[in-house]
Structures are given as structure tokens and as C-alpha cells.
Amino acid sequence: MNRPSVILFALAAVFCGVACSGDAQGAARLSVRGSDTMVILTQRWAEDYMRAHPETTIQVTGGGSGTGLAALINGTTDLATASRPITERERRNLERNRAVEARGVPVAIDAVAVYVHRDNPIESLTLAQLAALFRGQIDDWAQLGGAPGRVVLYSRENSSGTYAYFKERVLQDRDFASEAQTLPGTAAVIHAISRDPVGVGYGGIGFGEGVRAVPIVTDDGRAVAPTAESALDGSYPLSRPLLIYTAGEPRGVAADFIAWARSPDGQRLVDAAGYYPLPQVRTARVSP
Q1: Domains of the chain, with CATH numbers?
Q2: Which of 6, 168, 204, 217 is the most buried (most CB within 10 A)?
Q3: pLDDT tens across 182-210, in order?
Q4: Which burial class, exposed, middle or buried, applies to 219 when counting CB atoms under 10 A from its CB (0-12, 13-18, 19+)?
């Protein structure tokens, strides 16, 4: 067989066929679609897995957690990656369309970081200040004790699990300011802020190069930075699991791929990608 390679699509592609399908020669195919936060990590998992299993071809596609879960619901992907839990509506739609229950497993831990330009002097933010920023109620850094300058907001598309998580956790499900600039992925947010001294945005910790992550002040007054320790012990207010969902109990290559991602070899790639490996106490399946 040809040397395995990850097939990446710039646009979301439809993968036809039944889950974890194979051909008469024993080749296996697996499609993984969803979280843009997780796409680089999933690509690395796929590359290593296919080196060890050359009979398997894995397609990795981003588009956002909502896009991946929608594909799982309509049967056009085998696995959906998500940086947020499945909603009750999505769960019901999956049960109605495919007559199976959603199964979710954590595969890594992430900390949603709040990013500013490396030269921005702001030392920390409370969740209330963060909400006021992204709702447009604070529009100048001087209002937070920083250097004067109109705040420029960078956000994510509404199909993004990171967008949904931030909106629920920080904005309490209220709307973002209309002037917030919507970008297609965390990497794009980071790139924009690295070139904008008055910019602020949010995204997964694995994308933090070239900018500075602002510590978040907790209820007890501590300014907590996003680190492995604070994400794993829950002291960082914006820590979350990264998940893989299946329609029903995973079988065949899907089950094997998920188990491998959670294995020591797979978790070493989590660390290399800038996320946090699962602690032993959190390796049991969850269905959020």
C-alpha cells in the first residue's frame, strides 16, 4: 500500500459510507470531523496511528464542534471532535436520526486562554471584566488600568465549540458585542492579536505562541494563569475537557483509535501539541 497520509480538506467534505468501513482487502477508513481547536492534535494522532496501522486511512476535517456533531447526527462522519459537551438538542437529534445514543470520551484537557498582545501591560482580568469587554461595556483599556487605547475584540464563529463555551461560561449566554470580529479559528485569532497592540481574544491554550495569556482572577481573589496544574486541578476558571463523540458504542477501528489517543503514546502527542494529558482519575468514559 502507499505510505499513509492524513487527508485534510480546506472546506468541510462529505465522507460517504458507513462508519469505520473497509474494503475486501481489509483496508479501513475512518473520518473525524469537528473542533478547530482539536484539528492539529487530531491530525498528529492520525499520522502516528496510520504509521502503526498502514491499512487504515483517516480523514481529518475541522469546521467547528457544531459542524462535527451535525455530521455525526446525519451519519457523514464516524467521529466528532468537540471542545464543548453535546447539547440536549443534538443528543435528541442523534437518537431520532440514528436510533443510538451519543457516547463521549475525554481525550485531553484544555484551558481557554484570554490573549492580548505581548506588549499589553494588563496584569489580570476578572470574569466580570472579561464579560464586560466582550459585551462592549468596556471599550478602552484605560478603564481597566491599562494604557489608553480602544479595545479591539476578536471572537470565533458561532459553530465553534470554543465560542459556545466562552459565551456560556463568561457571557452567561448573553450576546457578544456587535463589533467583535469573527475569525475562523483560534490560530487566526492569535495571528490577529499578535499584530494588534489593543486586541483581545480567546482560544485554546495550544495556540498561544506570539501573544500573552492573561491570568484570570478567581472568586477568592487569586490571579490564576492557564497552566497544566491549574487546568487539571480546576483552579483556572476556564479549563475544559476536549472530547470525541460517537454514535452509539464505538467499534472496530473507531474504538481502537480512541483507545490509542487516550493511551500513553497518544497522550504524549497531547503534551507536544500544547494541551494537557488526561490524569489517570479522568480516563473513564463520560457522556456530558
Answers
A1: 7-109+241-282 (3.40.190.10), 110-233 (3.40.190.10)
A2: 204
A3: 999 899 999 999 999 999 999 998 777 78
A4: exposed
Give 89: exposed, middle or buried? Use CB within 10 Å, 0-12, 13-18, 19+: exposed
| 200 vs 87: CA distance, rounded Å | 28
Q: Which residues contact 284 (CB under 8 A, 6 or more apart)?
A: none
The answer, yes or no, to whether residue 220 has pLDDT greater than 70, is yes
**Predicted TM-score (pTM) above 0.85:** no
C-alpha 160 chain-centroid distance: 8
Name the percent of the chain in helix, strand, coil, to the closest 5: 35, 25, 45
**Which residues are CB-neighbours of 244 under 8 A, at least 6 positions away?**
32, 79, 80, 81, 82, 104, 105, 107, 258, 261
pLDDT digits (tens, 9 = 90+) for 48-94: 999 999 999 999 999 999 999 999 999 999 999 999 999 999 999 99
CA-nearest of 65, 60, 61, 57 to 81 is 65
DSSP per residue over 67-108, as a string? HHHHHHHHTS-SEEEESSPPPHHHHHHHHHHHSS-EEEEEEE
- Side chain identity, residue 127: L
